[in-house]
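Assess the record.
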Amino acid sequence: MAEENLQEQLLRIVAGLADELHPRAAPRVTLDANLDRELGFDSLSRVELLLRVGREFGVALSDQALYGAETPRDLLAFIQRASPASPPGRREPRPLTQGASASPFEAQTLVEALEWHVTTHPGKLHVQLYGEGDATEDISYRALKDGALSVAAGLAARRLEPGDRVAIMLPTGKDYLFSFFGTLMAGGIPAPIYPPARLSQIEDHLRRHAGILANSQARLLIAVAEAKPVSLLLRAQAESLHAVVTPEELAAVSSAAHQIARSASDLALLQYTSGSTGNPKGVCLTHANLLANVRAMGTALQAGGEDVVVSWLPLYHDMGLIGAWLGSLYYGLPLALMSPLAFLAQPSRWLWAIHRHRATLSGAPNFAFDLCARRLQDQELQGLDLSSWRVAFNGAEPVSADTIEQFANRFAAYGLRREAIMPVYGLAECAVGVTFPPLKRGALIDTIKRDPLMRSGNAVPAETGESRVLRVVSCGRPLPGHEVRIVDGTGREVGDRVEGRLEFKGPSATSGYFHNPEHTRRLFHGDWLDSGDFGYVAQGEIYVTGRVKDIIIRGGRNIHPYDLEEAVGNIPGVRRGCVAVFGTPDPVSGTERVVVLAETRSTDAQVHARLTREINAAALNVLGLAADDIVLAPPHTVLKTSSGKIRRAASREYYERGRARMRPLPVWLQFVRLALSALLPELRRSLRAVAAVLYAVYAWTVLFALALPVWVLVAAARRPRFARAVCHRAAKLLIWMTRIRVSVAGVENLPRTAHVLAANHASYADFILLGVALPPENRYVFVAKREFVGHFITRLFLEGVGATFVERFDAKQGVEDVERVEQAARSGASPVFFPEGTFDRQPGLRAFRLGAFLVAARTGLPVVPVGIRGARSILRDVSWFPRHGAAAVVIGAPMPPSGGEFSDAIELRDQARAQVMSLSGEADRSA
């Protein structure tokens, strides 16, 4: 294509997006127009632009194009250098199999298993590591050992003692592989930690993991170079931490490593199962535990030398670390390993890697199968061949019968055999695997009657054609050497097809949680370990019916939420698949109240009345009693997982918090009049000036008097919920003591569930006003500009209240930050955005950035517009002279997104901005 045509085509794409972003006053687009300053493209708009350019020109643009292109001309250069965006399977496959070989069955530790392979076939390919695009790097068993020895030497030089914990926070790559085995060779215990998606997030990321570092008493943290500057801060939060080191620093030690001999009973891994805050749970796994699980899974799979493994699963998670990597290493199976980010960016890469390497073993959580079945385009799959895939694991989260069938049907045309799909069950407390179904059997789905399971816990098979049924997927039978049982509330084992708590034991089972005796006691019931799941056994097969915390106990009956959810979903006017049923404690009756949260597109009061009646009728039919509360909500209100499953526990939490409303603000004390009517006008003016100065001094005195203890409490506790309560009370006290009149209106508009709050930004006083207005019991997360990270005091405070930081100028970093906010919103947080991004002295509403509205569109959460009045008069920008005045916070009605596309986010942004302008009374500065 001629360059002139390329230019015209590119300018047409850029102009089209500019028109969407600025419909009232689209900027003039030229090849040399600056994307940020002249065209108004923020980081998220740049992402959309690159997606459109890639589709239009059929090229795969590099990551550098996201932040390196300042003008359309720069972007044109990236297009001309880009390679065609053909499916990755087009490249000639490189065979990974290298002939069958024995496995180290006599090994007592993971290091001994590696040594066996190095002795037997040192040059054999172990891992083919994917980097940028389709580029790969081969790692042999000898290369793995040599790299690990270099790391071990560096650890020994830093006086690592046998049994010391070493936290590893690295992305998928050879440094991770070397560091894990290097820690083992030096006698340490690896504790994997989730790595940051962006290197520039390292400082914030490490603070979030301070709880794990403290609980594990890690002596060293192996991380990227960006972690070095915050080592002092980490040492303050985790006293045991001596240093933050990089793999390069460890490998730079010239002395030879001396391997520390370890035994089968020594700890080989601390696998953390929860987040970094609160009470982290580090599962203690010995070499014997890990090897027992790997051997049991290999036996069940009949793993052999002709098998090839493909994995994108993260190495900090048990399924990726143990199931994919350590299992491949033990059995000598070549592993094609890619980053989880590569899969999330382009899910088809997973399937094409299976095609390319003729892989036989590969697995993922249910959401990945669902994503591939529903979202991949046919043109992405042309030429795909999945006939080599003999075992497709589906585990790590609840397995959906619908997802299994949809995936099998969709990819049967590409050679996938239905019998290859294998739903499995496991948990970190048993290394990774607990139950596997028989090979070549395929998924077994048990169709049972709903009512008996609800009333008596009996899983009674349903008759053909029966409508009131549940479909439960079998997870197979216990792995060799392991046992599973189902027990009732007294701890006694129940019979077949009787639901109860699932317990397990076996050589892979953990001895408990590291330095956490309370949770360890709860885990064990004698020799058995509690999985936290309900299930039943039928003909030796294990069927998991749900988490214990999701079951509703009402009148002595166990009510499964999906019974009523399905019935309500069949009511005309209710969005099918968008109903959450959960229980909430009733202190009066001592049982649980049944709550139905159902989505409907209708806003008509008469329709709502009809739906309420029909939902109650359905509840009477299914449960034999009416629902205690029915909440009809707009689309995208019901919380779901990424795989589309209802998040009942989260919905219950938000419902309970949403029922609480702010109490009316107390009556403010009357102002003390300072003016004296007898003074001359000149004296009166002077007194006013003195009074203003005195007030400013007084206000700052009050602020500092309150700020110091609040800062200490928030920064030291690092518990956002506690911090929100402290800040709410402190803000109210500050307002009262400084005698600022604050009115709050529209609190009733705040949804009971998670939402995105968007407010205008005129002053630093906005934070105080929102602190007064927003209910502290709601999980609000302030989204602050990343510039605050450079201010130590401000940063610690904001982190203490759970704030998250976003980049305004670095496009690539900004995208990553918004994705992090989106993840927080999906987990139940309500992000608070100031979409203008900043403020200044000049009145008026600036243009809104897209971040808040993309988060809302992608998560389906409503946007709540908020107008703040009077804050600029109280404390202006570039001024530290506070003035007495009045302020108001006006909360508007929620605005649900119309969809999840980029255009929907733009539409939502424009609608929300119009509302915020009206509520705040600000003029339009973007005109």
Q: What stands out?
A: DSSP finds 30 helices and 36 strands in the chain.
